[in-house]
Amino acid sequence: METTMRIIPKTTYVVLTFLMYILVGCGSEAEKTVQETTPAVQDLQSAAKEAQKALEGLSATQNGDGTAQQVDPVPFKDLQSVLPSNVGGAPQSNLEGEKVGMMGFNVSNAGARYESGDKSISIKITDTGNMKGFAMLGFAWINNNFEREDANGYERTTKINGNPSLEKYNQTNQDGEVSSLIGGRFVVSVDGRNVTAEELKAALASVNTGQLAGWKDRGVQ
After folding, report:
1. Per-residue pLDDT tens digits for 133-155
2. Which of 72, 101, 168, 212 is the most exposed place for a label (fewest CB within 10 A)?
3. CA gyration radius for the chain?
4. CA distance 41 to 33
5. Per-domain residue ranges of the chain
6. Residue 14's pLDDT band (boundaries 50, 70, 90)?
7. Whole-number Å distance between alpha carbons of 118 and 90
8. How far apart are CA 144 and CA 158, in angstroms?
């Protein structure tokens, strides 16, 4: 099945972002210097301008009047409350959470690990807040439709309970990932080692996604 939209590699995003900061941060003095240097450096400036254009559309969610929509992300302690106390009989451990702010954008994360014998599952919840555009670079599968399969396993986009989702599984290594976008805002990601694909899906189902869906408008100003 053909990919309907090109996925931007993380390395490309880092380079584009770096180039954008070069352009924005240096200002007119830097542009003057570049104009006086070699064509190769001028090409770098041109690439930076193109990177800035490419990233202009990846800004915050906007209101009807075009202004940036302010969203206060759900506190990570509340996100922790929807994580299961155990997964498949494995107890919760290494409970974590954080709130990160950058350039006026805020996101919050919560996660936990579940281990039993040689099996290990990690669950992470990300509230993208008003960083939906930027978040799509990290979760490019949300706006894509693809399916890949070989002798080792598969990777595909799908729908789980009506939510855009990603399934990845390596049958040889018995590891994989299941991720789902809840309420158009929260990304729940499950990673596992020495587990079956069914166990990954069961771990996702153990998260209180109904509560997350109920928070889709929480903190929106």
Report:
1. 544 566 788 888 999 999 999 99
2. 101
3. 20
4. 10
5. 10-56, 76-214
6. very low
7. 11
8. 10
